[in-house]
Design a protein that fits this description.
mainly alpha, two-stranded antiparallel ribbon, 449 residues, homotetramer, elongated
């Protein structure tokens, strides 16, 4: 149980609500009420009992904190929850309490509540995902022709466009999200199996009840209960992890571009408690914090997913906090990055200036590509090394240095050599790739882009 | 660089070969030869150069260990590799070396080699996966009616069938594998972007060359290069992790069932260096060892996938050992579990005996389900508690105790009460669920089962 | 922000209180009040301001939830906290608010609050640790002569004593705890450095203020601020992780020994929502759940501890939830295992019976050790294999089979052969080792045991 | 089993040798020879057998690859190893093979070999650690007065000295290494317990043999065998992880300072396969790659350290590759960073220029500290906001703007205001802290600094 202060950067208001006691209790109550109705419809329990249970489940009478405290004794919240609900039903109709949780097991209600909560959290994430990708698309289009340095290993490289960079972010996020949605679709299925997963307590009517229960909760019915087969939930957590790493990459890039010495983009950010001049990349910090945490949460879930026989000892008991932290941190990253992109300032002049301050040396590759076919790699490399040394010593632009080198001037046509450091001339297929990234990601599933 | 001894349980012979120096070098050479041919076809380099490069790349002349040592200087194997290949080509045709790796960047060859290696490793894994799932299916069918204890939190629970248990393993593995295959399909795409990912060095012919290169290598061409968008490889590693956790669950169950005191199944296993009577679950140990390692390898990959700008510093450099360890360990787990299942001995008599030695107490739930509707939960629980206490004290079976309790005998029809501890009578929908698991998993995609 | 229900097994009441909003806010207020007093004493701010700040900090007037919500804007709770405190001080004395947080930076108050919270949590953990180790020591002494099967790879091995097994648990826990305490001692030091860690805002009086502040808070003063040197906190989290793995090993052993088929020990445990006969190892489940989570929390902290320059972007922001979850889960494991050991039932009869039901085959090693020196390994192995086969076929005890084998009877003195399967005769140095484990662990530091 | 190419950045030549087949085999042979001598001295086996075993163990006759392949059958390399060694001894002296591995278990030889290998690897690491810390100390002293920007959240902050920054690196590394050494001291102890850890096979002479064996191998004798108590090895891996995160922080800082736009330091680095102008931070990349991997290796070890009863199933089997990868990657990071620091170019002019290009705005905090006591925080903040806005609009330095603001000029003495942006005037206790970091770290244990 952590405090608002501790979790302040690790969740959002809607997600904190989705994982609140009220929300979890609601999901558990919904399960029990739906179960009662399904069983009544299948003739397993009396209709009056279903009504009494449904009525009790519609109230907010249960005490989550007390249930949580009692959970330490039995190792699950389900047992004190069922006890409390039974008492509540009995207090209204003494002959109906006996039909609460009828034929179900602790894990049925706990897992189905988890699935319902995942489904709810996902809807929240989807809003920010949509907002973020929409803005990225716009941003990419707007900066289709904005040239900037490519940077490899944090060093200047041949130029790119900011539009291409953003399209790369967009496509990765679109793919990651598509995977996450697919995993949620697969994972958000009913859990209902009874003590050992055979529905034995319901005699031959277990599948009938299952089908009705699934309909009541609007959840698909899987082939069978999955008490100790956690692969589908694992995929949800893993794919949330991949989403968050993708968000972390975007945040990392922005925070680097926002360095004062680089100054190419700036997120709205936040201030400092002591330094008035500062504008911190605090949106990026929130996203990167999530990206630090998610890989380990994925790891934790995978480790715990090795669950013994028909109900695990420990692995299952570790799941809830991991799932809750993973989805909340993912959502926090999405929300903070959506806000950062929303308010992003882009500075094309600094982008161009940063290319220019390399004095044209980032076009050295281009020179080699022009020289090598005719002169061979060795000679080409030797010439460019020579030229780069002269640039460093003289402070002159590479273009001027090259124009003054007869061997180079002979080998490269003047109309090219004179524009050797024009970024727009050395963008290759940047825009074609940008358009491909946007188009394919928008129209197709992750598997095809 | 680890030894055979250290890695002995973490790989298989075919996988060790797939990740060997010879194999990696072959993939890198294949890339360079294919690139040369694609560029020749596109008119970027002379046909003679493509022939010379192809010829040099067909030899085994490069020294992997020397390339590996030199990699520490530049931070990548690609640079010494390209240098060595260039020298090799030059030694045959001095005018062709200059066209080696033409317009490509280090990461193009390294990543494409990684992708080709993943594709190769996957084929190896598929063989064992197929063998394992085939056997599991047979095993499930053979034991459709073999009753055994369900076990929750390692304690006896209502009975299940061994066929249902195995069907659960089968379905989880089938789903996990389908996810892994899908991720491999998405990830095994060409990497080709040049220095900053714009294909600038190839002028306007970059996409043309890309398409030809993809065809040469029989790899799909993605929308754009993905130098710092690692989500697709991350998904491969994550889905290998989910597969391995699934294998770990199966291995955990088998090793528990193989305990001498349980004695229900036995894998061929291995001996002890000192205790002649021992038969160790060594196949399970290998699978469980992989399941210990994979979650962290997934975590490591996700952490490293936050890569800066157009080429990362550190994150990219951490990938190869992680991918290699992850796929080899997954394959080792698959192979050892396939062998364990192949040689699995099942002991239905012990399964039944373990039910019987609970003295019928695992049917207590059944009694409550029969009593509660009429008498209420409280009375039902009180009666069964009373009955269980008598069982413990007298050592008599629950059935006999219950028959001697008038309140119970009144409430439960004698033909049911007399068979209250017949496992076959309390299997619920076990076989229907078993059949659903096998049928849906076999015929459909992960998303639908 | 997670709910009571979600965190129910991951914390204890005292630890939840230590990491509550009230507790964190108290630590932050204590820092600011102590800072004001230290600065007043050093002549940096007026005494009246220190009084006003101390007075305001003594109230409970701040709204943690509002501060937490505002934290998303600036990326830290410190900024809205300082703002709120300043307003509170100003409302009492308008000339004192300006001296709140004087010369300090956000991270100074946040980190010192973290350190104070760790110190508080550690005291809570120490109580359960002491209780647990005390009981383990007693348990080991009580069962110094209780024989049971050794078990390797979950298969029966030569006998041990339960006292030795427990002494192993005890010693590992004592060592792990000593490491954790040492790390806490090292880590629980003042954080105070100002904006860039130079104490520049305090002119030359920074160290003077630091010393006074450290005294006020009863925290050691480190050599220098440690804003981006997180190794000491990392060691706390890592050593909590090692403690928890040790607890997990104990819990794993108990849960295995508690299996119905083994039946050698039993923790008080909890019931089932549906199966009245069940007694679940729920204390072990809680400890094992923590052991599933801690490794990843350690990993997450280590990843985030790579913090840029003088204040990190993301890594720092990820720490709080990780530290809070790690210490709470460790404490939850300690508490639940202490309760489990407190109420542990040990069944020496089942322990002996489980040895006996191996029919003496677990003494096969002993036979080989007696035969091999005279007959050679090959012959010894061949004889014992033959004997084990006869045991299996005939169901006779190994002793009887061996007595009937002339080659064996010739090689092993009859007074030994007749007692070949007496567990007490084949315990080696079990008790000497047990005593060594208890004595060394009790009297010395981890480094010496 | 991974290739040289895959592991090229993850190890060094000496560490690869320490974890090579030859080295592991040597350690295992050393154990068996030492055991034989210890047992002969204790009268357990004939002296002639000890001689024969010692002689055989001195050869290089065993086939590591064959042993590794055979390990998959038994789940451990020890069994085929002992078999092969026995055959080798027998081939020289048929009456001595029977005394090979006498009374020991597989894990005794495997774990002791691991411990010997850790000890060997540690010596290798110590060389680079010493070199690196020595250079850092020098570097810090040399740049005691070199001013540079502090940077928080990657944004300019109040100035520091490069000497202080390096002293922080130095102290963190010194502390981390001290922890690692302490853990190695604790962990590098003999493993010798026989089948179940009781030394039963040696009758009453087990402890006597243990003491002699420990002396033979120059390893401390622990209180008892530790087959399933892995906390001490876990601490080695965790502390290697903390070391590597510390190295990662240094590498991260250097790679950021080496950005072209920052240009304050430069490591020797490496080139690019395609861009001749590039100088990549390849030493940092290697260290950062290790820092990406270590956290997960720590996690993996901790997860696997929950080992069942007297020998684990899976957890133990996962350890070797994890330990080998962790120590090799740590060593690779140490070596590459030592080289990077060795060849580090520092550019004090760019450091000063980067302060100056902020136009004095990084001294805004200083202004507020001077104004707030007299005018109150609100007025001070309002004045400085106004001043910063004028700086942005006019491009004038903060000093000039402030001098032109009467309210400010009235509140701050002219001799201070005129030097408001002199970095040397606003370093606080930077050098005192630097000296404290160097002195305490050099003279004391981690626990005291």
């Amino acid at each position: 149980m952590s405090s608002h202060l501790i979790e302040s950067l690790g969740t959002t208001v809607p997600l904190a609500e989705a994982f609140s006691d009220r929300s979890i209790l609601r999901a558990m109550l919904d399960f029990e009420a739906a179960l009662a109705r399904a069983e009544a419809a299948a003739g397993v329990i009396p209709a009056a009992a279903a009504q009494a249970i449904t009525a009790a489940a519609a109230t907010d009478a249960l005490d989550a904190a007390a249930i949580a405290r009692a959970a330490r004794d039995s190792g699950t919240i389900s047992i004190p929850f069922v006890k409390a609900l039974t008492a509540l039903v009995d207090s209204a109709d003494a002959s109906s309490g006996r039909f609460v949780h009828f034929g179900a097991t602790s894990q049925d209600v706990a897992d189905t509540a988890m699935v319902l909560t995942i489904r709810r959290a996902r809807s929240g994430l989807a809003v920010d995902h949509k907002r973020l990708t929409h803005r990225l698309r716009e941003l990419s289009d707007r900066h289709a022709r904005t040239v900037m340095l490519g940077r490899t290993l944090l060093q200047p490289a041949s130029p790119i466009t900011f539009g291409l960079k953003v399209a790369g972010w967009y496509a990765a996020l679109t793919r990651s999200w598509a995977r996450f949605e697919r995993s949620c679709d697969e994972a958000c299925v009913l859990q209902f199996g009874g003590a050992s997963g055979t529905l034995a307590a319901l005699d031959g009517r277990g599948l009938n009840v299952s089908e009705r229960l699934a309909l009541e909760l609007d959840l698909p019915l899987p082939a069978a209960p999955w008490h100790t087969e956690r692969d589908r939930i694992a995929a949800v957590v893993a794919d949330a992890g991949i989403c968050t790493s993708t968000l972390g990459k975007i945040a990392r890039d922005i925070s680097l571009l926002m360095q004062d010495e680089v100054g190419e983009v700036s997120e709205p950010g936040g201030g400092s408690s002591t330094m008035p001049q500062k504008r911190n990349p605090s949106g990026c910090a929130v996203a990167l914090a999530a990206a630090v945490r998610l890989p380990s949460l994925v790891s934790s879930f995978l480790t715990g997913s090795i669950q013994e026989h028909e109900r695990g000892v420990g692995g299952w008991h570790a799941e809830w906090p991991t799932v809750a932290a993973a989805l909340q941190a993912t959502g926090s990253a999405l929300a903070s990055l959506a806000a950062a992109i929303d308010g992003l300032t882009v500075n094309p002049e600094r982008m161009r200036a940063n290319i220019e301050r390399t004095n044209g040396t980032v076009f050295a590759e281009r020179v080699v590509m022009l020289l090598a076919p005719g002169l061979g790699k060795e000679t080409a490399n030797s010439l460019i090394s020579d030229a780069l040394a002269r640039c460093r010593e003289s402070g002159k632009p590479l273009r001027d240095v090259l124009l003054a080198m007869p061997d180079v001037a002979r080998a490269i046509p003047p109309q090219i050599l004179e524009r050797i450091d024009v970024a727009e001339d050395y963008l290759g297929s940047a825009d074609a790739l940008r358009v491909r990234l946007l188009e394919r990601s928008a129209s197709v599933r992750a598997s095809e882009c």
